[in-house]
Design brief:
The structure holds 2 protein chains of 2 kinds. By secondary structure, chain A is an alpha/beta fold. Chain A contains 17 helices and 14 strands. The two termini of chain B are 31 Å apart. Classes of the chains: A alpha/beta, B alpha/beta.
């Protein structure tokens, strides 16, 4: 049973969550939460959302039976939830469409967003173009360099991209910069937060808008296999595709939930982003959750080959699922994810995002230990075109235009 | 238990300067605080650096980096305060982010503040809704949790003001810390609104850098908080900063005292 005190507080997941954000933004968060809760139960809004998801974003995404992988690994049946086939090439669009509609209902004229790998920035720039809104995206300078293609993509879509040069110049610094921008111009601007992090109501909105992944997957698997999966697997940075993958299975106790974190050079090294395995409880980016930090509470620099997973925190709902033992979180290293990048390309003919390949690498390990009548659903959160150049570089291959 | 903050505002416009602790080093911080205290500061606000200060602009972020380069930790800052306390009883408050206090332990941190005569805490990422987890410890050791009110607070002012002790930090404008040439137009209304619910004093901060601005803000509120302008002097003068801070404090003190006389 939930503690009564915790229950009275907004946006709590057990002892995690909350609204640890400067006063300047609190009124706006109240407004967004009220509007969202009104819209959530409004059939007209749901219709509007569904229309964009189906007719613009290409939903439902396929639940694809990966027969070659299944045979090769020789254990559980593997299904891939193909978020990489969405318009803009990742799961990010699901949440962006939802939040942009909330922004539109609030009369906002300008969208701002943080981005790591660039997928969320591209999705935000895309929807801003569609809806005729201004768009500015904040991206760590290091990420603008390793994801140049996505920077240009955002600019093509009419967005202004700011390279953030403070701190370690990656995703966490991009979130800081976007929050600062929002605090200085809140009246006409909506911050489209891309991950399952931040102050209430963001983790809830991201959960709800990404839950389409597991809602569809459940129905699709039922049609194909007439059963629930035994395990669902997704990569976790802040945790948006993972919470979407878990959402509709959380109340099915027979379904094992596995989040795969980026271990970088190893969970036990300092060059890692494995927040739940290595981190401790703290307060940052508007939430109480698990963070990689030192004993004085300074947030650590984190590392992963994947720009979308190298974040020092994780969404509060994931922290709570881990704390309750409902979900397991495991680490996959750079090397393992690059191997998986090549493996799924050669085995299934799919170039998957290096983020998603962390989940694939875990499936490669776990599937052979499971029986042939068991089923895994693994979410491919995005496509890997953006990563081809950096994977080549990692492998020591030089490509002409690099 | 009442701390020593509120009485500072009696019959007098308060000057509340801010420096980042350990910027650029231990000894200079001690001398900077003493220079401010001896030249008219009523409360000195010491910043405890955080790796990701989302409410702060580039001037204070750079100061944080200098403090980190000189090896700052919360315990080192408590040592700085102990050193200051050998020479001055100026009221002190800390400005920091909640994670620093959370990791230290709410009870241990507040206890340490009481032992060293630190009267209050300003925590920009702890809004009213989240203060309950720290408040029992602050109360236990007589530490004021100084709340922030901003031009966007609106209907929230009532509950914030009613819970306030020490003083209320009124944020002059939207955005982050840093010097500014203009402030929100509705500061008068904001403060009138606060005064409907409490007699806890108000001090305006964010952007104030000239004596004229301090004078202008003290016309509206009970005090003026000056951060980035002072931190800028520390950046420029390094270990020579104390004499410049002393001079600057005198100018601000004079402007605020002129305001107080005008008011009489």
């Amino acid at each position: 049973m939930k503690n009564m005190v915790e229950k009275e507080k907004l946006g709590r997941y057990g002892k995690f969550g909350g609204q640890y954000i400067p006063e300047t933004l609190m009124n706006e968060l109240e407004i967004i939460a009220a509007e969202y809760h009104k819209l959530k139960d409004d059939p007209a809004f749901q219709k509007e959302l569904k229309d964009l998801l189906v007719n613009y974003a290409n939903r439902p995404s396929l639940l694809y039976y990966a027969e070659n992988m299944t045979k090769d690994l020789g254990g559980a049946k593997i299904y891939l939830k193909r978020e990489d086939l969405n318009h803009t090439g990742a799961h990010k669009i699901n949440n962006v469409i939802g939040q942009a509609l909330v922004a539109k209902h609030l009369g906002k004229k300008r969208l701002i967003a943080e981005t790591g790998a660039g997928q969320h920035g591209v999705a935000t720039a895309t929807i801003a173009a569609l809806m005729g809104l201004e768009c500015e995206v904040f991206m760590g300078k290091e990420d603008t360099e390793r994801q140049k293609l996505n920077v240009y993509r955002m600019e093509l879509l009419g967005a202004k991209v700011h390279a953030v040069t403070s701190g370690s110049m990656v995703l966490k610094d991009a979130v800081n910069a976007t929050m600062q921008e929002w605090a200085s111009r809140v009246d006409d601007t909506f911050y489209i937060l891309g991950s399952a992090v931040g102050p209430y109501p963001f983790p809830e909105m991201v959960h709800d808008f990404q839950s389409v992944i597991s809602k569809e997957a459940k129905v699709q698997l039922q049609a194909q296999e007439h059963t629930l999966p035994d395990m669902v697997v997704a990569c976790v940075g802040g945790g948006s595709n993972a919470i979407g993958t878990f959402a509709d299975f959380i109340d099915d106790p027979s379904v094992q939930l596995v989040g795969v974190e980026a271990a970088g050079k190893g969970v036990d090294t300092d060059e890692t982003a494995a927040t739940i395995e290595r981190g401790s409880i703290g307060v940052f980016h508007g939430m109480k959750s698990m963070f990689l930090q030192d004993k004085n509470g300074q947030i650590d620099k984190v590392y992963s080959i994947s720009a979308g997973l190298d974040y020092p925190g994780v969404g509060p709902e994931h922290a709570a699922l881990a704390d309750a033992g409902r979900a397991q979180y495991v680490g996959i290293t750079d090397d393992e994810s690059v191997q998986a990048f090549e493996y799924i390309a050669k085995t299934e003919g799919i170039i998957a995002a290096v983020e998603s390949c962390h989940a694939i690498a875990y499936v490669e390990k776990i599937a052979p230990t499971m029986s042939k009548d068991q089923i895994i659903i693994c979410t491919l959160s995005g496509r890997g075109d953006k990563d081809v150049a950096s994977i080549a570089k990692y492998k020591g291959v030089s490509i002409d235009d690099e | 238990m009442m701390s020593n903050l509120k009485p500072v505002f009696n019959n007098h416009k308060a000057f509340i300067p801010f420096v980042v602790a350990n910027d650029p080093d231990f000894d200079t911080t001690v001398q900077n605080v003493l220079a401010l205290a001896n030249n008219g500061a009523d409360i000195v606000e010491l910043g405890i650096p955080f790796s990701d200060p989302v409410a702060d602009g580039p001037v204070i972020q750079d100061a944080d980096l200098r403090a980190f380069a000189a090896g700052v930790t919360p315990d080192k800052i408590f040592d700085i305060v102990a050193e200051i306390r050998k020479q001055s009883d100026v009221p002190l408050i800390f400005l920091t982010y909640l994670n620093i206090v959370f990791k230290y332990g709410y009870d241990a941190f507040c206890k340490k503040c009481q032992a060293l005569g630190v009267s209050g805490l300003v925590i920009p990422d702890m809004p009213y809704e989240e203060r309950d987890e720290l408040a029992p410890f602050a109360d236990k050791y007589g530490i004021d949790l100084v709340p922030l009110v901003t031009p966007t607070s609106g209907h929230r002012i009532e509950k914030i003001a009613k819970a306030a002790t020490g003083f209320i930090y009124v944020v002059s404008s939207l955005g982050i810390t840093g010097t500014r040439d203009s402030f929100s137009q509705n500061l008068n209304e904001l403060i009138a609104d606060i005064r409907k619910y409490t007699d806890v004093p108000t001090a305006i901060g964010f952007g104030i850098h000239t004596p004229e601005q301090a004078y202008e803000m003290a016309e509206i509120a009970d005090g003026a908080i000056i951060g980035s302008a002072i931190v800028d002097l520390v950046a420029k003068h390094g270990q020579d900063a104390p004499k410049y801070l002393g001079q600057y404090a005198k100018e601000i003190r004079t402007a605020l005292d002129n305001q107080a006389q005008q008011a009489v």
